[in-house]
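Ticket #4471: structure output looks truncated?

Reporter: J.K.
Steps to reproduce: submitted the chain below (421 residues) through the standard prediction queue, then opened the result file.
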Amino acid sequence: MEQGLFASNPKAYRNSPWWAALSIQLNYFDKVNPINERAGGVNMKPWMESLPRVYDTPFHWSDSSLAELQYRPMVEAVTLQKRLWKNQYDSLVSASPVFGSLITFEDFVWGCETARSRAFSGAYSGSAFNPIPYATVAALVAIYLGVGLGTVEQAANGAALVVCGSILKDFVFPKLLKVQKYVICPLIDMANHVGVGASGNVAFEYFADGFSLSVLEPGVPQGSEMYIQYGPRNNDQLLQYYGFVETNNVHDVYILPPLREWDIAAIEEACGRKIGPGRLEKLDRAGLLGRSSDIDASVSGKTEAANDIGGVVLTRASGIDPAVIQALRALVSSDQEWEDAGEAIGNFAAEVSPENERAARLAVRRAMELELESKRTTMDEDKEFLKVLESRNGVDVEEILAVRYRLEKKKLLQEAISNMR
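Returned output as attached by the reporter:
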């Protein structure tokens, strides 16, 4: 494949991000040569024909459809994704005109989406079990002892070194170095995701040199679908790369605007305290106010609805980021509390007083209420609109997905508001 597409510059392929490298491989088998020589001449065409050709992801949505998500971090993430993928494609074309003549940008995007939605990863185990080194060691030990070159202990020490080296190479070093291997495995790639209660598990079989999809207890009823878990994916990741939204996703997150964008007057009114002098400046120096949105500075390979602007992170599993609560304790502190803490943000890591704690919780609660109130539609309106859309024929999938997505985000916000009461 390198010789076919990147003979003039093989490093362009080798140094590509994993999703781009898999896209190149997929397009090679799909557009250039379906025979996988490295797999013993397997014809990849039947599997290639089974893959989706169109994906219902926000990458393909119009600006107006993206706006219907009512969620700035996702809109910015998709903007970054489009820019990053185009830059990566242009870089590959510059490195190899042959690649550009055979693979269009649309083809490349298809491969990237196939890779992002169907690949799975894990710690790289070096290689599959290879009995040859162990058989060789056994033979050398027998010869070593047979001709009297040394003692049994010396032979055992030598054999132990080989075994330990193999274990280190295949199991220890990959874990320590956090080397990831990304794989698209036919058949397994068809398994769908569920956030909780997966009935199947994917694993690499070291001794069999292959991947397995096994049934978990208590099993799968006959005629039912086996689900696996793609990992702790929130709805941002599921929509952006897989094209669906999970209801009541336990891993879902909401990124509120950074503290510097909060309505200070509304916060003061809600908690009944005035923000004293020096608080905002100290929080800014500590990096707790976040920064203004600047998507041009964020193209670093991570294109999920990432918190590059230092927004306030809210998760369904654990609520508001503890660092934000710490910042709010300092922000709404009275002059006496601020003085007692030595005007140090670090001294607000734990509760300083019941009154201060209540004020901090009221502040974050009001911020979430304002965020919810800023949406163009209410939760009730979204629920009714979703029923109407799902009852109609010929409705664009992106229209339904947008309403489902924003409804799930609002539900998460409302839950958090209730928990702050």
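Triage note (M.O.): checked the attachment and the full token line is present. The chain has a mean pLDDT of 88.
Status: closed, working as intended.
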